[in-house]
Design goal:
Blueprint lengths: L8 E4 L4 H8 L12 E4 L2 E4 L11 H19 L4 H12 L3 E2 L3 E3 L2 E7 L7 E5 L7 E4 L10 E8 L5 E8 L5 E7 L5 E9 L5 E3 L2 E6 L17 E6 L8 E4 L8 E6 L5 E7 L6 E6 L8 E4 L6 E7 L2 E6 L7 E5 L10 E4 L5 E8 L2 E8 L2 E7 L5 E4 L7 E6 L6 E8 L2 E9 L4 E6 L10 E9 L5 E9 L10 E4 L14 H7 L4 E5 L9 H5 L7 H16 L8 E6 L1 H12 L6 E5 L18 H4 L5 H10 L13 E7 L8 H13 L6 E6 L10 H18 L2 E4 L1
Parallel strand pairs: 35-36, 35-37, 37-38, 38-39, 39-40
Antiparallel strand pairs: 1-41, 2-3, 4-6, 5-6, 6-7, 7-8, 9-10, 10-11, 11-12, 13-14, 14-15, 15-16, 17-18, 18-19, 19-20, 21-22, 22-23, 23-24, 25-26, 26-27, 27-28, 29-30, 30-31, 31-32, 33-34, 34-36
Length: about 700
């Protein structure tokens, strides 16, 4: 750790009367209303800001400019905003490494020197070789808004394919390089979305949609996903269509090949939960797809093939997942061989490395990892540094050396080199960062939700915290799509922690921390459980005197943005500040945009009369009431978000500004040339978190001084 850390002097003060006066005089844009009314099974629902769904119109563009001007003016008046940005810039500037992976005879890894917009991909000829730049995405655009997404080295080590995203959009373009020379091929493929790169010989499989209508690239409902094969050195127009299903235009398809290229696997899904698998034995000469497992009740993921049979991770008859071996010739479930049965912990991932199976588990929202034989005999547990998150185990079936990452709330991400046979780890890359972990404490508590369910929550704060109910606190959550929140290090969070803030992360139902049952308990007609869990977390923090309603902020993104929107409209008095980021706010129309329909397995749909009634009761947009004092709110979205289109945030903030009572500001920050979050350049990220923390700390009455 650096020895010359800046001495921090912190004091907290209530917002002065002059500041409160400034807040009450905010003049929000007068947003036009239209007479749009939808009839849902006899219930008439007004949608007066429907016109904001057209994000390309001149009217919407003008409205965005006016809203951003108001927000920027407000943020510019926060006295410590520049100091926060300077501190963030200083602590951000340290080298960051990704987990190395082997491609052919070479090793590749990502590295960011500190303030580069995008991490650079390096190559080494051997583990002890000298790294050299292989692909620098910072040279792909002048402003750093073009990023790498998917990358893959061909199994023969000859080719390197990569995809790029512009402005954070989910749309990708694919390109090909020669690994040895670094020379570009002329190949260029467009309109790729939600796709991997699956190599076979001198070409690869990928998934794409048809070209959308001009002007609707970021909002059009995506349908008719197809799998193609591209041969290196040919035009995209000659790519071979491998798989499509015209009878089900809303289904998605993803291709992968096994490491030895014996099998092509197609995963078919119609939502974010459950899939089916089809395969071709590429060595047999039979190009007809056969069904391996039927969808869509369970999840199936092929890990690799072992002696002609497929190792599959699934929650079929195992809510916390298991590993089974399936013979493609006789794929009947009765003939599956269980390799690793379901356990009390959740099986998060598995990899075949060094002639062994490395399995990573989640126990009470933190990582455990074990080594097994191909027959499923446990060899040993991998000794991890503590309560945290291990991941990205990388290695080849025939190599004894693997790599993985480990991180925790006060443990910056560290890369380990792992000897599979010896079960020994050594630090491979670490970070020199201006941070003293010994000054902080991490604690896990279990609190009771509304229906009596015990919910885990992590708390992070400076040692010596006094439980007086006056500590500024940020409560974060997600609660959806079987996604688990586990401990991880965040540079941006240090700003809050080093100024005396308490960070709380609740592991809500709807996530994957305890398997499929935990996930299902927060979906469709049980979605309110997620909000109840989050509200109960806030009540616990107040009851135990960590904080109070006047000192409590809440934050979440995407599905977590829905969480924040629902909780702030259901219990507005419970929170002082709310920051919903790229949230799903219009629950009655989310399925009409881009890939939204696939979320119905978690949310249900307003197209169903029973589900409509349930969704309507919590949809954030539709539960903002006139004259209610809502928390100080900073809605955050981006103009290139084609995952959760910005119309959700636009309509939500327009309604909130119309109906808000009291002095708390309700504003929207609309980023440009940015998307749902992935690939955002460093400068933009620092600007975004500067504004977020400035807003949160200002409205919690904090006054950091550096």
């Amino acid at each position: 750790m650096k020895k010359n850390a800046i001495k921090i002097i912190v004091c907290f003060a209530l917002i002065s009367p002059s500041v409160m006066k400034a807040q009450t005089t905010l003049k929000y844009p007068l947003t036009k209303k239209v007479d749009t009314i939808d009839n849902y099974f006899g219930t008439k629902v007004p949608d007066p800001y429907r016109w904001l769904e057209d994000d390309k119109s001149a009217e919407t563009t003008a409205w965005v400019k006016e809203e951003n001007t108001l927000t920027n003016d407000y943020l510019a008046k926060i006295p410590f905003r520049n100091a926060i940005k300077e501190r963030l810039t200083k602590i951000w500037n340290y080298p960051k490494y990704g987990v190395p992976f082997k491609g052919g005879k070479h090793y590749f890894f990502y590295k960011n020197d500190g303030m580069q917009s995008q991490s650079v991909l390096y190559i080494k000829d051997s583990l002890k070789g000298t790294p050299r730049v292989f692909l620098d995405p910072n040279k792909l655009s002048t402003d750093g808004t073009v990023s790498l997404s998917e990358i893959a080295v061909s199994h023969n080590g000859k080719y390197f394919a990569y995809m790029t995203s512009s402005g954070g959009s989910d749309w990708n373009k694919a390109f090909v390089m020669d690994v040895e020379t670094g020379q570009m091929y002329a190949d260029q493929i467009q309109w790729i979305k939600f796709s991997g790169i699956a190599w076979q010989g001198d070409g690869f499989y990928y998934s794409r949609f048809d070209q959308p209508k001009a002007g609707m690239e970021l909002s059009q409902h995506n349908q008719n996903h197809k799998v193609y094969y591209h041969k290196i050195g040919t035009l995209q127009a000659s790519d071979k269509l491998i798989y499509e299903n015209k009878n089900f235009p809303d289904r998605s398809y993803d291709a992968e090949t096994t490491e030895d290229e014996n099998f092509l696997i197609i995963s078919e899904s119609e939502s974010t939960s459950g899939n089916g698998l089809y395969y071709i034995n590429l060595k047999s000469g039979d190009n007809n797809f056969k069904q391996l497992v039927k969808g869509f009740d369970f999840d199936y993921s092929v890990i690799d093939d072992i002696d002609g049979k497929l190792l599959v991770m699934t929650n079929d008859s195992a809510p916390k997942y298991k590993l089974v071996l399936i013979d493609p010739v006789n794929p009947e479930k009765s003939k599956w061989k269980t390799i690793i049965p379901g356990k009390n912990e959740v099986l998060k991932s598995a990899a075949v490395i060094g002639g062994k199976i490395i399995a990573e588990y989640i126990k009470d929202a933190s990582s455990k990892a074990y080594i097994y034989t191909y027959e499923g005999k446990e060899v040993s547990e991998i000794n991890l540094p503590g309560i945290g998150t291990a991941g990205d185990f990388s290695g080849k079936k025939g190599d004894n050396i693997a790599f993985y990452s480990y991180t925790s709330f006060t443990f910056p991400s560290t890369i380990y080199k792992f000897d599979v046979n010896a079960n020994t780890s050594e630090v491979y890359y670490t970070s020199d960062i201006d941070f003293k972990p010994e000054n902080y404490e991490t604690k896990q508590v279990f609190y009771t939700s509304k229906d009596g369910t015990k919910i885990p929550m992590f708390l992070v704060y400076k040692k010596g915290l006094v439980l007086n109910g006056q500590n500024p606190t940020l409560l974060y959550g997600y609660g959806g799509f079987n996604i688990s929140l586990t401990p991880g290090f965040s540079i941006s969070r240090l700003i809050f922690l080093e100024n005396g803030g308490v960070y709380a992360m609740a592991n809500l139902r709807g996530g994957g921390e305890y398997g499929e049952d935990w996930h299902n308990a927060g979906t469709i007609l049980k979605k309110q459980n997620v909000f109840d869990d989050f509200i109960a977390a806030a009540e616990y923090l107040i009851k135990e005197k960590y904080t109070s309603s006047e000192k409590l902020a809440i934050q979440g993104g995407s599905n977590g943005g829905l969480l924040i929107g629902a909780c702030m409209t259901q219990r507005p008095e419970l929170f002082k500040v709310a920051v919903p980021q790229v949230g799903v706010m219009d629950m009655l129309r989310y399925q009409k945009f881009t890939i939204g329909k696939s979320w119905s397995s978690d949310y249900g749909s307003s197209d169903d009369p029973t589900q409509f009634k349930y969704i309507y009761k919590y949809s954030p947009l539709h539960n903002i009431k006139q004259g209610v004092k809502y928390p100080a709110t900073l809605v955050m979205t981006a103009d290139h978000d084609d995952r959760v289109v910005p119309a959700h945030s636009f309509k939500f903030i327009a309604t909130l500004q119309e109906k808000q009572s009291g002095s708390n500001p309700v504003l929207v920050r609309i980023d440009t040339m940015a998307g749902h979050g992935a690939g955002k350049p460093t400068a933009k990220t620092i600007e975004e978190v500067t504004d977020m923390w400035s807003f949160i700390m200002y409205n919690l009455g904090m006054n950091p001084k550096y």
